[in-house]
Amino acid sequence: MDAQLKKGVLEVLVLSVISRQDSYGYQIVNDMSKYIETSESTLYPILKRLESQGSISTYSIEHNGRLRKYYKIAPNGLAKIDEFLRSWPEMLNLYEYIKEGRHA
Question: Which pLDDT score, from 0 to 100, does residue 29 have?
């Protein structure tokens, strides 16, 4: 998959995971692994970017004597998911067009 396309899809997938419930890095990777292979080293730059864009916020909770950083969806993050879903039919049309051209 093209790196730029994958980057955009990964961002929306991360937002979708967090929209279901607040979560932390390891759990997000685990939840995403059902759909796409990724690692924490890939995830954390995405989380940092989403936080700087105002799509998610963070808070910490103590867990086993250590602070665990949790990520929470923000209204801007929900809007990004909605934008992705609205644009998906257009992407499917492009996919079908490209696919038809390969098999013509």
Answer: 96
The single-letter code of the amino acid at 67 is L
Query: Which amino acid is residue 32, in one-letter code?
Result: M
For the full predicted model, state whether its pTM sits above 0.85.
yes
Name the more confident of 5 and 59. Answer: 59
pLDDT band at 5 (very low <50, low <70, confident <90, very high): confident
CB 56 within 8 Å of CB 15: yes
DSSP 35-98: TS---HHHHHHHHHHHHHTTSEEEEEEEETTEEEEEEEE-HHHHHHHHHHHHHHHHHHHHHHHH
CA 88 to chain centre: 15
